[in-house]
Structures are given as C-alpha cells and as structure tokens.
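Help: why these numbers?

___
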Amino acid sequence: MVAKFNDNTPDRFSSEAVLDAAPSEVVSAEDSKVVAAIVKELTEESEALAVVETEPAPLNEVIVEVKPGDSLSRLFSAHDIPARDLAMLLECEPLGPRLKSIFPGHTLTFQLNDAQTLVGLRYTPGPLAEVEFERVGDGFIGREVVREPERIATYRSGTIDHSLFVASQRAGLDDALTMQLAQLFQWDIDFVLDIRAGDRFHVVYEALYLGDEFVRNGDILAAEFINQDRSYVAVMFEDAEGRRDYFEPNGASMRKAFLRAPVEFSRISSNFNMRRRHPVLNRVIPHRGIDYAAPTGTPILAAGDGRVITAARNKYNGNYLFIQHGEQYKTKYLHLSAFARGVKAGARVRQGQVIGYVGATGMVTGPHLHYEFLVDGVHRNPRTVTLPNAAPIESQSRPAFQQQSAERLAVLARYKADQSSSLVAAH
C-alpha cells in the first residue's frame, strides 16, 4: 500500500508522518527502519538543495583606480562592460550623474557575476564617501554612504623669511591649507608684493580622522596673520544651514565684494599708468589696468559676483571677457588662452569662480592677464581702489556667531600662549 500525503502535511519527510499515514498492520519493525533511512536521505538532499538556492554565488570584484586621461567609456570598455550599462548608470537619478566627475585617484569597483554581467558598481571619490549602485531589473538604483570623521582642532604657526609657502611647509601645513590661509587674507594682504621677512601666522584648523587613521586636513577655524607689524584675524562661522564663511572678530566679513587680484601671478609686468608706452606699438597709450604675468593656462577667477556681458575675441585683446557687477562696477579680462566651460555672454558667475585661463592672445609680448576695474564707467587702479565690503553677519545670526567665534578665538589664544611659554622655557 502506498502512503498518500496532502499539501497540509506538517513535515513531508519525517518518519513519523510516513508511519502515521500507513496502515499499522502492514508495517513491520524492519519496514520502519527502511522507511526511516529513506526519509533521512531525502531530508539531507532537501536541505542541501535549500542551501544551494539561498546562498548567492560570490561576486567577482575588479577594483580600478582612475588614472590621468581615463574616461568612463574607456574604463568600461577595457573590462568588457557594455556601453548600455554605462548609459543606465548615468541615467540613475540622482546619484548617477556623479560618475561624470571622476578624477585621477578615484576608484571604481566593478561587481560581476559568473556570467561576467555587471550587477553592481561602487564609486569611491575619497575616504569619506562612496556611491553604491545595484542592478535591479533593467536598470540600477544607487545609494550614498557617508562616513563622518572625527574632527580634531590642530595648531600650526610660522615665521616668514623667504615666502609664505616655504614657511608653511616648515610649519607642517600642506599646500591646500596654505592656499586657504592666503585666500582668507587676500583682500587685505597682497601675498606677492606685501609680504616681508618676519611676518608671522598662527592657524587653528581641523584634522580629520577615521578611527586612528588620518584622512586629510579640513577647514581653518581661526587664524591670525601679522603683516608688517599689523595683525589681521579671521574666524570661521557656520550658520544653521551648515554654510561656512569667515569674518573678523567684530562680525565684518573677511571678503570684499571684489578680489584684489583675480589670478595667482608671478609678477606685475605692467602697472596702471595713463602715460604708458605700448611695448608693441611703441607709442604712448594709456594703460587702464594691470598686467599680471603668469604661465599660460593659469586659472583666472571672477573678481566678484556678476553677469558676463561680453565673451569674444579680436586682434588687439585676443580672447576677452567683460563682467557687469550690479549697476556701478565692471571688470575686464584680456588675452585669455581660453574661456572656462559654460562662461559666455549672459552667464552668471560667482566670486572666485574660474572664468578662463591666462594666455598670450591678441597684441602682446608674452602670457599675462590684463585686468581692468571700472567704477561708474571710469577706470580705476585695481591695486589701490577702495573695494566695497561684503555683507557682515546678519543680526539674527549674531548670538550664534559670538558664541562660535569666542570659542575658536580662545583656542587660538591658548595655543599661542602655550607656544610663547615653551619658547621662554627653552631660553
């Protein structure tokens, strides 16, 4: 007689279920042992099948570091990943478009199954964040993983004998922090022409760690620069929306409405001079701006917020830009090697935004930026004109600013005092 089962049987392969379903008069003790052995074998096979079905096959991960000159299409093609997969990843909103901004040093981790099909991608632009993409159906979904580092206040100081960069390196500041320091005080100090031996700086900045591992340096929290015996102090304020900017201790903005010099230059090759003799035409022609000599390709920055009103080329100016800043101010940039992407007539630009690159186009003798500053249509000397201030701390933010600035300036003062005590003890 054959034992029958229905779909509600609690355990189809237990010996008890088999024996209960069979008439007792036809099942001997020997038969029960045989049935138990069969059930055991079936149970083991069922469990093995279940393991195979529930454990996914391991993925093959290929880690690629982006090198100079690499592009997404080249990297995908080099690993035989279809262009269609790349297109689907780029269309994966809102994170897919970030893949368009890969740079040398970033990493891409391709996750491939046994059939060498891309089932996932991990994009790591740095140690603090990565974006993971997973294939779902006929497309991808993405999620961002952000690691929050520990921020340690760190102090450095130095005295200048040759240049800011040499003194900063000797003090242990990297180039990025040195640039931050120079940018903080660039409206008050010309770091090419105003620096003197004996100038000093004191800086408190964030050092970022993941566990015990140093990741990178963060923002400057407070700084003092002493130039020709005059002290300039800046403190960082972070508002309720997380925006960071720098102010004087009294709440005035460190920024002016315009940059004093919109390019990192090596020297001034020609000053503002209304009786200047033109080096090519050999006749007196007013020089209504300043020529900043710099290597071809050096980035040129927008001196202030505004709108590009002219982006053109002629045989005298070469490639040139005019920017209107409100009704009163206008700036001009001549002899560019190229305009920055998206910079054209009608485009809005922000102070410090790269708008073009130093060149030697037009009637010139070498690469430089010719920069002009106009007030109410009248040319003014960019080096000496009084620049309008940016907006100070808003009244509703002043209590928070006073608390933050007091804390950060106290840390700066404590470090300076400890350093002074150490120097006295050493002598």
